[in-house]
Design brief:
four-stranded parallel sheet
C-alpha cells in the first residue's frame, strides 16, 4: 500500500504543477477582411484567435458599424485591415467607439496591410464628382502574391512587437509560410503565362493588382465612376469598346451584382468569370493558397474554352 501511494505522489505533484501554471495568453485579432484573417492565422498559428468583420460575399467598402463589431474591437489586441481608405466608411467609427487604446492609429495594435507596400493608381487630384476614389491608391493589394508576402513579413514583425516572448514561434511560422508561398508563386506564374496579353472588362478596379501581375489588360470598367453602378448609357459605351477591343472575359467578384453584366455578355459574346476575390468566395477558395489556385483555374478556363 505504501509503495502504491509513493507511486501516486509524483503524479499528483505533476498535476498540481500543471494546473498552477498560468494559461498561455492568446492574442485577439480583429481582421477587417477574410484575406487578413487567413494571413493572421497562418503567421499567428496557435497564438492567435482571429475574427473577420466581413465575408467574401460582402463589399468591404460598405459595412455597417454594428454594436457586435464594436464589442469585438473593444477586446482586440491587434487590428489587421486593408487600409488605404477601403474601410473609411465604417472602421474609424468602430475604433472610436471601442475605447480600445491598443488599436488606435498610433499604436502597435493598428496594422494596415496596404500601408506596408507601394500602391498603384494613386490619383493626382481628388474631386467628389469622380466617385469613390481612394486618395492612397488602389487598396486591393492582396491579389498580388509578391506584395502579400511583404505584408506577411510586416505582420510577423508586428506580432513580435506585441508579443515578444513568442518571437521564435512567429519567425518559424513566417519562414514556413515564406518557403511555401515562394514555391507557389513560381507555380502560379508558370500556369499564368498563358494569360499574358489577354483582355478583360472589370467591375470596379478590384482586379488591378491581379491583372498587372498576370499581364492582362483591362480595356473597360463597368462602373462609370468608382462606386457607381453601370448605367444604360455606360453599358452602351462599354459594348462599343468590347466590339473594338474583343475582351476575353468580364470579371466579377463573388460579392458584386451582375446588373447589366449579363446583357453586356450576351451582346458582346464575352464570357463572365466570377472569381472568389478573397478567401471563402467559393467552395474551392478555402485559404490563401487555394484562393490563387482557384483564381488561375477559373481564368485559364476561358483560354481552354477557345
Amino acid at each position: 500500500m505504501q509503495n502504491h501511494m509513493a507511486a501516486i505522489k509524483p503524479a499528483i505533484t505533476i498535476c498540481i504543477l500543471l494546473f498552477s501554471l498560468p494559461s498561455k495568453a492568446v492574442l485577439n485579432v480583429f481582421a477587417c477582411e477574410p484575406e487578413w484573417k487567413a494571413l493572421a492565422e497562418v503567421i499567428g498559428g496557435t497564438n492567435v484567435k482571429v475574427f473577420s468583420a466581413t465575408t467574401a460575399f460582402q463589399d468591404p467598402h460598405y459595412i455597417d458599424a454594428r454594436p457586435s463589431l464594436i464589442a469585438k474591437t473593444r477586446r482586440a489586441d491587434l487590428l489587421v485591415c486593408t487600409g488605404a481608405e477601403l474601410e473609411v466608411g465604417w472602421l474609424p467609427l468602430l475604433i472610436r467607439q471601442s475605447g480600445n487604446k491598443a488599436i488606435q492609429s498610433n499604436q502597435a495594435g493598428h496594422f494596415m496591410a496596404a500601408e506596408q507596400v507601394d500602391r498603384i493608381e494613386i490619383p493626382t487630384s481628388l474631386d467628389r464628382s469622380d466617385g469613390d476614389i481612394h486618395a492612397g491608391g488602389n487598396p486591393h493589394v492582396h491579389l498580388d502574391p509578391h506584395r502579400l508576402l511583404t505584408i506577411a513579413q510586416a505582420l510577423k514583425d508586428r506580432f513580435i512587437q506585441i508579443d515578444a516572448d513568442n518571437q521564435n514561434y512567429y519567425n518559424k511560422q513566417y519562414s514556413e509560410f515564406e518557403a511555401k508561398w515562394k514555391a507557389a508563386i513560381q507555380r502560379w506564374e508558370k500556369r499564368g503565362s498563358a494569360l499574358k496579353n489577354l483582355k478583360a472588362i472589370v467591375y470596379h478596379k478590384s482586379w488591378s493588382y491581379l491583372l498587372n501581375w498576370l499581364g492582362i489588360e483591362a480595356v473597360g470598367n463597368l462602373e462609370p465612376k468608382p462606386g457607381i453602378p453601370p448605367t444604360s448609357r455606360h453599358l452602351a459605351d462599354i459594348l462599343k469598346i468590347s466590339r473594338q477591343e474583343k475582351p476575353d472575359f468580364i470579371l466579377l467578384a463573388a460579392f458584386q451584382k451582375d446588373k447589366g453584366v449579363k446583357w453586356l455578355s450576351e451582346k458582346a459574346s464575352v464570357p463572365i468569370i466570377t472569381l472568389p476575390f478573397t478567401v471563402g468566395g467559393n467552395d474551392q477558395a478555402t485559404d490563401l493558397f487555394s484562393l490563387y489556385d482557384n483564381t488561375l483555374t477559373l481564368l485559364l478556363s476561358s483560354v481552354h474554352a477557345n
